[in-house]
């Protein structure tokens, strides 16, 4: 483990852990459940990561499913996620992600204060009757799709590229953020809504704003392992965990004490993982540059001539290093996983080639198709 040093903060002495880059990467990879061991189930992954991103882009499979497959492996089935959300209520959907129910009591204080922007407050005030109409409709007839609910808005928001002229989805999202409605499940990609009191547990612990923020910061650090504190960007507080620095970096970081202690455990050598472009490990581009020396650019929104690796290429993690990009797509019409290219940042050793090929074969088997190499 890295050698700690002390740093005075007023009358408090904060121990600063000195880590090598290898140790830093190992902490992060383990925290993201991408080390040699596999997670046991959907809930375990969500509890550790804090969220599983939802995104419909499915060159291989939708984000929520590839994130879970990359942690659990061949035993993961999409129905397990649906069961955890819609039947067992161990996960809930909020702000484009599935989150563990254990986080809800830490989020509720902020949800009850929302919104803070004056423009949003004014829109909600002007549409108070509209909000009450929706809540009454859900109480009487829920769960419902947004398309089942009439638009009775008094004041409309102009379409912004993300939402159309129908005000119902906008109001539902706002009521979700206030903790008044909840998503009970989906029909395809369409969300079904109900009153929060009929979806969320009623026996949740209560926390003050300060307690909730502190505990949430600790949970976000648990998911990150090691991170630069930023309450808005990654949810890690400036006092979350313990202080750390990494060789060759000027960043002042926070490290999860349990992840730090786990450095004493044997290293199983890692494995190969293909990461969906919206995977949480890829979220902090600065940390990827600083600690993994990986400059990641999502090429989905680039013109085709400007793409180097492909429309939705998946970064290849080998152990604690990013070694290449997998450009592949599922062709259901022919039941094949078409591998357009495996881009190697540096030429692979024969053993590395075999590890990547084996993981591609595992991915195809999980999808129920064969592999077609271009």
Automatic annotation (TrEMBL):
InterPro entries named in the record: AlkZ-like (IPR009351)
Superkingdom of the source species: Bacteria
Pfam families, per the entry: AlkZ-like
UniProt-recorded name of the protein: Crosslink repair DNA glycosylase YcaQ family protein
């Amino acid at each position: 483990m890295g050698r700690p040093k002390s740093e005075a903060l007023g009358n408090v002495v904060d121990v600063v852990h000195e880590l090598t880059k290898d140790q830093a990467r190992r902490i992060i990879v383990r925290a993201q459940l991408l080390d040699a061991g596999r997670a046991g189930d959907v809930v375990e992954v969500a509890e550790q990561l804090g969220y599983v991103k939802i995104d419909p882009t499915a060159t291989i499979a939708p984000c929520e499913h590839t994130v879970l497959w990359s942690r659990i492996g061949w035993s993961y089935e999409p129905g397990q996620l649906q069961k955890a959300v819609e039947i067992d209520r161990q996960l809930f959907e909020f702000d484009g992600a599935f989150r563990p129910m254990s986080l809800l009591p830490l989020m509720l204080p902020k949800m009850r204060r929302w919104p803070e922007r004056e423009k949003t407050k004014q829109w909600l005030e002007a549409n108070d009757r509209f909000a009450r109409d929706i809540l009454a409709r859900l109480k009487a007839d829920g769960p419902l799709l947004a398309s089942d609910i009439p638009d009775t808005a008094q004041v409309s928001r102009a379409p912004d590229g993300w939402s159309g002229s129908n005000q119902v989805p906008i109001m539902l999202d706002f009521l979700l953020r206030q903790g008044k409605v909840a998503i009970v499940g989906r029909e395809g990609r369409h969300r079904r809504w109900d009153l929060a009191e009929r979806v969320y547990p009623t026996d949740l612990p209560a926390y003050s704003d300060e307690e909730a923020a502190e505990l949430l910061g600790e949970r976000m650090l648990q998911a990150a392992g090691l991170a630069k504190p930023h309450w808005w960007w990654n949810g890690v507080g400036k006092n979350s965990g313990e202080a750390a620095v990494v060789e060759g970096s000027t960043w002042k970081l926070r490290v999860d004490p349990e992840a730090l202690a786990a450095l004493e455990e044997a290293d199983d050598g890692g494995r190969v993982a293909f990461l969906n472009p919206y995977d949480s490990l890829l979220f902090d581009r600065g940390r990827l540059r600083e600690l993994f020396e990986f400059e990641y650019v999502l090429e989905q929104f680039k013109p085709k001539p400007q793409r180097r690796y492909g429309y939705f290429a998946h970064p290849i993690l080998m152990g604690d290093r990013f070694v290449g990009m997998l450009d592949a797509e599922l062709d259901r019409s022919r039941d094949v996983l078409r591998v357009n290219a495996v881009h190697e940042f540096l030429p692979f050793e024969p053993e590395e080639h075999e590890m990547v090929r084996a993981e591609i074969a595992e991915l195809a088997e999980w999808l129920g198709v064969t592999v077609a190499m271009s």
